[in-house]
Amino acid sequence: MMAATSEAILAVGVEDADRVHGGGKRGQFTSTATSRPARGTNAYRSPTILSNGHPPGRRYDQADILEGAPVKRAVVLIALFGVMTAACSSEPAELAGYVRTPAPNSAAISLPDATAGGGEFFLRAPEGGLLLIYFGFTACPDVCPTTMADIRTTLREMGDQADLIELAMVTVDPGRDGDEALAHYVQSFIPTGHALRTEDDAVLSEAALVLGAAYEVNEDEEGVVDVLHTAHTYVIDDRGDLLVTWPFGIETADMASDLRILLGR
User: Fold this and answer.
1) Are 52 and 81 in contact (CB under 8 A)?
2) Run of H or E residues at 257
3) CATH fold of 4-263, please?
4) Closest by Cα among 213, 207, 203, 209 to 247
5) Signed CA dihedral, 158, 95, 68, 105: sign only
6) Could you read off the pLDDT of 218-254 as tens digits, one per residue?
C-alpha cells in the first residue's frame, strides 16, 4: 500500500485518467491495459498513467517534491506534470517541452548497456551533443512503441544534426527484458540506440529519481504483472544536465524544434 499522501496525489491523476479513458487522446491523461490472462500465465497487464495537459513553455521547481521520494513507491510522480500548475514561471515560447529548475544532473550515473556487452553507459551526451533518455519496457503494448517511433521520426527530421543526438532506453522491467531482447527492441527503432538494463533496483531507482521518472512492477496472486511507468522523454546535454522533458504525445515537429534550439545554444 502507498502512503496516504501518495494515494491522495495519485487519486487526482487517476480521476483525470478515467475522464478521458477510451479516447486515447495524445497529450492528455489516459490509462491503457491489456486483457487479463488466464490463471498461471505470464502475460502483461500494463496500466500506464501518462502525464501532460500543460501548455508548453512551463518551468517547474520540484526539488522539494522529489527529494527523498522512493521511486517504486512514488508512482504519484507520474501525474506531477499534469496536476501541478502552481508556482510556475514562463519559459521562452520556443521550447515545447517542460524545463525544470534547478536542472537535475545525471552525469555521475551509469547503467549497463546491453548493446555494448554490458559496459557502463553514463547518462550524459557526447561532447557537443544531446542524449534522449526514455524509461519503458519491451512488452508495453502502446505507449513505449509509440514514443520510440516518434523519436525515430524526429531524428529523421533532424537530417545531419541527428548525428549529434543519442538515444538510450532504460528498461523498468529487467526481470523480463533480457539483454538480447532489449537490445533488439531498441535498435529496431534506432539502430544506434543504447539499451540500458540493470537488475540492481537501487541503481535503477536512483537513475529514475534523478530525472523525475517513476515506475512500479507488481505481480498478483494470479500471475498477472502490472507495470506502471512515466511516459516522458528526457533530453540531457554533455554536462549531464536535464534541459527539457517531453510528455507523451508531443508532436514530432515540436521535438525536432526543441532539439535544433538546444543544439544551437
Assistant:
1) yes
2) helix 252-263
3) Glutaredoxin (3.40.30)
4) 213
5) positive
6) 988 888 899 999 999 999 999 999 999 999 999 999 9
User: Is the dihedral angle over the CA atoms 37, 217, 195, 243 positive or is it negative?
Assistant: positive
pTM above 0.85, yes or no: no
Tell me 1's DSSP state: -
Helix (H) or strand (E) holding 17: helix 4-20
Residue 217 burial by Cβ neighbours in a 10 Å radius (0-12, 13-18, 19+)? middle
Contacting residues for 45 by C-beta, under 8 A, at least 6 apart: 33, 34, 35, 36, 37, 224, 225, 226
Cell numbers that stand for 240 in this block: 549531464
* Burial tier of 257 (Cβ tally within 10 Å: 0-12, 13-18, 19+): middle
Q: Which stretch of DSSP H or E encloses residue 31?
A: none
Helix boundaries (H) for 75-219: 80-83, 143-157, 179-189, 201-211
One-letter amino acid identity for 227?
V
C-alpha cell at 114: 546491453
In the structure, what pLDDT confidence band is assigned to residue 57 with cuts at 50, 70 and 90?
very low
Residue 133: strand, helix, or coil: strand
Q: H or E segment at 259? A: helix 252-263
Q: Cα–Cα distance between 108 and 123 in angstroms, integer?
A: 7
C-alpha cell at 244: 527539457
User: Quick count: other Cβ atoms within 10 Å of Cβ 142?
Assistant: 13
Q: Could you give the strand order of the β-sheet that contains 99-100, starting from the edge strand earlier in sequence? A: 89-90, 58-60, 99-100
Contact 95, 258 (CB under 8 A): yes
Least confident piece of the model among 27-36, 92-101, 243-252:
27-36
Half-sphere exposure of 61 (CA within 13 A, CB side): 7
